[in-house]
Design brief:
By secondary structure, this protein is of the alpha/beta class. The protein is built from 13 helices and 15 strands. α7 crosses α11 and α10 packs across α12.
Length: 399
């Protein structure tokens, strides 16, 4: 870590010996579904981050020393005097927004303060730009500002190859896009091969794109052909809870399914440590909403829980079919149920898949290493921006 010397110790705005500063924009900091933002922030080594948000949630759960919250008018005007004063005082090196809508706000500050703009696209924010839903009042500011943001961004970071392809289709030049995936905390989600009972899990918000109805059908299919009946725990909350519980009754599995609501990251880790299989039956929703790289698939793989997912979004980038887990086509609940049965009834197979899954997480998805790579991306962006400004200055002097 950088060392602070002399008067800098008494000046919270003084620069450390080597650290650069990044202004991180979120619309909200921090809903439970976006823990990955916090996991990135807390592993920075060479960059000091300030967070800029419209609203702050779960502060005791996600403590962070420099979170700046705008007044309500910010969401309409896209400006904040408080934010501008902080920018002038803190002297940031770049701006990084998580999700496209936050990028739409961040672009104003990047432009006014002549800073490079990085936007990470995580899933819903890209297909939304070609969906009729972009004209709804809640999304309209993003839709109106998105074209300018895509022109202005120095680099778009894509959480999956699919998102990169969708942004290319929207006209973003390939040299301004980079695939950089989210990682997993390998210490929190520690590997343990043994499991005492056939427990299955689904984790995520109870919304259409999670496809949990297909997971329930897959679980019912496996239950009907197995002597040792498994149990299923569903972690998450959302508008589909009632319909999913009704489906459990219809399928005759209600006694074997437990809905436990939203849980902390620590509790999810405890559940995965007891679980043999994670089902990730994600689908493209009717409005185009989709996953990018589903974090819980990586957490399960790190823990020794075998993931069975769909050929959807970034999930195939986290699961090597037949090696670290299984992949089926979207909505193929029978195929998912068969794979579930195979894993639950063949312990040698389950342990082989689990071990390979952990190795994949260690080699490709270690969060500490990926944050180090993110900081290297920041370095490139800052150097490129400085080079362009220098070239522009020389051109102006010659003129």
């Amino acid at each position: 870590m950088p060392v602070i010397h002399g008067a800098e110790m008494n000046d919270p705005d003084a620069r450390t010996a080597y650290a650069r500063r990044v202004a991180v924009f979120c619309t909200n900091f921090l809903p439970s579904s976006q823990v990955f933002v916090y996991e990135q922030l807390r592993h920075y080594q060479r960059y000091e981050a300030d967070v800029f948000a419209w609203r702050r949630f779960n502060a005791p759960r996600f403590p962070f020393p420099r979170v700046h919250v705008a007044k309500p008018a910010y969401v309409v005007r896209g400006r904040s005097r408080h934010f501008d004063r902080t920018f002038e005082r803190r002297r940031f090196d770049l701006v990084h927004a998580h999700f496209g809508p936050a990028g739409a706000y961040a672009q104003n500050f990047a432009c006014v303060h002549s800073l490079p703009l990085v936007v990470t696209f995580h899933g819903y924010d890209v297909p939304l730009l070609s969906s009729p839903r972009r004209f709804l009042p809640v999304h309209l500011p993003y839709a109106l500002a998105s074209r300018a943001m895509l022109r202005q961004l120095t680099l778009g970071i894509c959480a999956s190859k699919e998102l990169e392809r969708l942004l290319l289709d929207l006209g973003v030049p390939p040299d301004r896009l980079r695939v950089h995936r989210l990682g997993v905390d390998l210490e929190r989600f520690a590997f343990r091969a043994e499991r005492s009972e056939p427990l299955v899990a689904m984790v995520g918000r109870l919304v259409e794109k999670k496809g949990f109805e297909y997971g329930l059908r897959a679980f019912a299919h496996a239950c009907h052909v197995m002597d040792d009946k498994p149990r299923l725990v569903v972690v998450g909350h959302g508008e589909r809870k009632r319909s999913l519980m009704s489906l459990c009754q219809e399928l005759g599995i209600a006694a074997r399914v437990e809905f436990v609501g939203g849980q902390t990251n620590e509790r999810v880790a405890e559940i995965l440590a007891q679980t043999k299989v994670l089902l990730a039956p994600s689908v493209v929703a009717g409005d185009g909403n989709r996953e990018s790289g589903l974090i819980v698939v990586k957490e399960a793989a790190a823990s020794g829980t075998v993931p069975i997912g769909t050929l959807h979004g970034g999930i195939p980038e986290s699961i090597d079919d037949g090696v670290t887990g299984y992949l089926v086509t979207e909505r193929d609940w029978q195929g998912m149920g068969e794979r579930l049965r195979e894993v639950l009834t063949d312990e040698a197979l389950r342990q082989r898949l689990a071990g390979a899954a952990r190795q994949k997480m260690e080699s490709e998805f270690d969060n500490r290493q990926l944050v180090t790579e993110l900081e290297a991306i920041y370095d490139e962006v800052c150097a490129s921006h400085a080079s362009k400004r220098s070239a522009c200055s020389r051109s102006t002097r010659r003129g």
